[in-house]
Amino acid sequence: MKMKKLVALFATAAMTMSLVACGSSEAPAADTTAEAPAADTTAEAPAADTTAEAPAADTAAEAPAADTAADADIDYGTGEIKVWVADNVVSFTESKIADFVSANPQFAGYTFTVEPVGEGDAAGNMITDVEAGADIYAFAQDQIARLVTAGALEEVAPENVDAVKSENDAGAVGAATVGSTLYAYPITSDNGYFLYYDKSVISDPSTLEGIISDCEAAGKNVYMEINSGWYQTAFFFGTGCDLSYDTDDQGNFTKANVDYASDKGLVALKKMIELKESKSFQNGSAIGEATNVAAIVDGTWDSGAVQELFGDNYACAKLPTFQGSDGQTYQMSGFGGFKLLGVKPQEDENKLMVCDAVAYYLASEEVQLARYNEVGWGPSNLNAQASSEVKADVALSALAEQLAYTIPQGQYPGDYWSLATSLGDSIISGELTSSSSDDDLMKALQNFQDTCISYAQ
Fold first, then answer.
1. If DSSP codes are grouped into helix, strand and coil, which group holds residue 302?
2. Which of 68, 201, 211, 402 is a good FRET partner for 345, with 20 to 30 A between their CA atoms?
């Protein structure tokens, strides 16, 4: 159980570090890595340790001293704290931890070692050996359930939950939550898809029907990858369908939660068919492979290429709404991806307090904005999202709006992705059409649902 003093510590740390200069003045680097579902990667051994040291005296003088009155009498002791982050933010993280320790000398007895372990590998490494794992580590949101079950995550202090929830967007907070408990600190909201469009062609990007109509009138193409299990959830989740899996601490699938074979699944499938049957439709999600395009559902990794293609007509928006066959209007949804920062449970209460303080700071508004400026990671912090720098990034702004409607991607069997491709291919090939009976469409959905369920049996 975290001590009540932790709240005062967080408040002190946050106020102190908000005064520290926190970012690069350089333009953000392009985020070129698509985190769409892929086969699990093999965990790599961490590279040689690099240690974050307190800055030299002249640098430390720039950071105001912390107001430590509330915890001046606390002996935090000494120790070593291991931190895992992606390779491209190792130096950044070392620098920020050094700033933090410099401004909070009560933590000077701890040595912080920052190792390059990517978000995709961190969970596997932690679960394999929790004791040998990092004390603070970044991980992808689809691993949170496994980490909780394995005892590799300390829950966020109850006194701090409201602050984390209010400071970050709803999608990121949802990704950091298991059941009703918040287990991690969100640090990004930047993996998902939204609409890029040519504003000289698309008059109103808010409805799918309007986009299709404008593209057809202009003889232009609209791209979406409907035979992808990542993208096609935009329709099914949009109508309220569920497709998720429960897992044990080894990542084994124990239960499938699927209701595609339902009236709401039928509405989604019919809309996919309607989109495919438009003369403007092209299946795909990569701007580099698109031709004669006026609209494409894609991610931030292609923002530079899309902007170059559309030039002055470059524009972005959240995914549109669509009119269902039942006459209702639905907001397109889909998967969202987030990076989270977790703290490992500790036997030493003082060490746990230090880990929490550092994690809270690394997930703070100031550090998220500095991280965006240095490497282009999209913040989950609402104030950082509202900053002039991030708001000027129209792709990230559109994604942030869309992520409010998405479902954090959890763990899925590898076979799910190929199954979803088959469902989309049945539409693209003309096996399923607008002339198909509801019974035939429901049969296809039932086969899909039953197969999804079989993966957890």
1. helix
2. 68
- The Cα–Cα gap between 187 and 167 comes to 11
* 399: its two tokens: 């994604």
Q: What are 168's strand-pairing partners?
A: 381
Burial class, 405, CB count within 10 angstroms (exposed 0-12 / middle 13-18 / buried 19+): buried
How is 307-350 classified by DSSP, letter by letter?
A: HHHHGGGEEEEPPPEEE-TTS-EEE---EEEEEEEEE---SSHH
The SS3 assignment for 181 reads strand
Question: What count of residues does the chain have?
Answer: 457
Q: How far apart are the C-alpha atoms of 34 and 298, rounded to whole Å?
A: 10
300-315 per-position pLDDT tens digit: 999 999 999 999 999 9
Query: What is the model's pTM?
Result: 0.78
What's the CATH number for 5-191+336-408? 3.40.190.10
Residue 368 backbone phi and psi in degrees, to 5: -60, -40
- Which amino acid is it at 259? D
Residue tagged 């998967």 (tokens): 335
Are 2 and 353 in contact by the 8 Å Cβ rule? The answer is yes
Which helix H or strand E contains 162, and what residues bound it?
A: helix 158-167
d(Cα 373, Cα 212) in Å, to the nearest integer?
A: 36
Write down the pLDDT at residue 71.
57
Domain limits, the chain: 5-191+336-408, 196-333+413-454
